[in-house]
Amino acid sequence: MANILQPVRGTRDLIGEDAARHFHVVETARRVTGLYGFSEWQTPIFEDTKVFSRTLGETSDVVTKEMYTFEDRGGDSITLRPEGTAGVCRALITNGLTQTLPQKVFYAGPMFRYERPQKGRYRQFHQIGVELLGPATPLADAEVISAGWRILCELGIAKDVVLHINTLGDTESRAAYRTKLVAYFSQYAGELSEESKLRLEKNPLRILDSKDEDDKKLVAGAPQMQDCMTSEAKAFYDTLLNHLTAFGVPHQHNPHIVRGLDYYNHTAFEFVTTALGAQGTVLAGGRYDGLVEQMGGPAVPGVGWAAGIERLSMLISAPPRAQVPVVVIPMGDTEAQALDILNLLRRENIAAEIGYSGNAKKRLERANKSGAAFAVLVGEDLKLKNLASGEQADVTAAQLPALLRA
Ligand code: ATP
Ligand code: MG
User: How many Cβ atoms are within 10 Å of 347's Cβ, its own excluded?
Assistant: First the structure.
């Protein structure tokens, strides 16, 4: 016998309760973002490699170590998308939408990163996310963050979650801060991790995000962005925090929040949970005003977030099982009438099933075991049986939809 074929390392099947959790997260996010006026887009799961290499920063972990990049049969370099923002911005430009603003985008789907698989970390994983393209005002940031908070509330996990928020300032503030950081970390260049030594030259802000313990000690004493902010950047941040209060989103200023990717400015935030033992980020994002321009489009400001569905699925309680169907049972040679009833119920949006074989007794036994609430017994008369109580009553076909919906 041939060997059984296995799933590729770092991928998994969504079946049963895993699937129910996953789709509950997606459906909740789709519904809530709809309330905020977002529309769903689906962009391709693979893009020209440059869509990511140009935007995520040549030195980011994602680009240097984690991308699924390959040459296709035509010799083009293709990459399976590691995140959603770059593709949405590419789509905004190539669909000619940069003059039709704002665009409020929701997406959900698979992402791919070549990482070492472990609990909650996969090579194909899934994200939900939003992008609000066009407005440069802090109200846009507040709407985006508020939608994320609302989703966490509706998923029942908000009680363990805190919003950590920071500002990276505008270009001017960032340049001033960069100079200060370089001066500070250069004094300790010998003590920095190898990775952070490189960051010191290429992107010193990234050192603030370092996971290295010795780096973290140096980071604790580093100069703060606050001291380099222009008054405009400061006003932007203050207004955003006021809007968040108005929207009822609890928040906490955290100067160490810098997003991993290069294209962020002004707002950076993470919703962090304490429910997984160690701190875990469940939803993260920020403002990226330079990104669309960097991709060759006009200057279109943007703000958004993404959240890993696998991580959210681990935090929520199991969603209620799908509506238990009605089982239709032919009590003799009545299959034709039974099929009519089945058809009627489904047309009326009532979930209904029929056994594929067996006599009436067998079918009734199976209906009882299945957890169905009702059986419709189709014999000479039509009977509706409540499977929990065992009660049954004569009914007409016309009465069934109303009785079963009640
Ligand atoms: P981490 O520090 O956990 O690697 P990240 O900074 O790479 O996260 P982002 O690029 O901000 O993550 O992606 C947003 C979310 O996507 C994360 O908070 C996480 O929930 C999820 N995520 C990222 N990589 C994976 C993965 N390999 N498997 C499952 N979920 C992932
Ligand atoms: Mg990562």
Answer: 9
* Domain ranges in the chain with CATH number 3.30.930.10: 16-170+230-315
CA neighbor of 125 nearest in space, from 218, 250, 14: 14
Global pTM exceeds 0.85? yes
Roughly how many angstroms between the first and final C-alpha of the chain, as a whole number?
A: 53
Ligand nearest to the CA of 127: 1
Q: How many CA atoms lie within 13 A of 263 on its CB side?
A: 26
Could you tell me whether strands 46-48 and 374-378 are parallel, antiparallel, or unpaired per DSSP bridges?
unpaired
* CATH among 3.40.50.970, 3.40.50.800, 3.40.640.10, 1.10.10.10 for 326-405: 3.40.50.800
**Comparing C-alpha atoms, which of 183, 339, 204, 310 is closest to residue 258?**
204
Q: Find the 385 Cα to ligand 1 centroid distance in Å.
A: 50
Q: Closest Cα to residue 96, out of 292, 305, 290?
A: 292
Considering only CA atoms, which residue is closest to atom 23 of ligand 1?
A: 308
Q: What is the pLDDT of residue 277?
A: 67
Q: How confident is the model over 245-295, as pLDDT tens digits?
A: 999 999 999 988 876 556 678 999 999 998 776 668 999 999 999 899 999
For 168-202, the pLDDT digits (tens) are 888 888 888 889 999 999 999 889 999 898 888 88
Cα-to-centroid distance, 347 and ligand 2 (Å): 47
83 Cβ closer than 6 Å to some ligand 1 atom: yes
Q: Determine the 3-state secondary structure of 50 from DSSP.
A: helix
**If you measure from the C-alpha of residue 308 to the centroid of ligand 1, how many angstroms do you get, rounded to a whole number?**
6
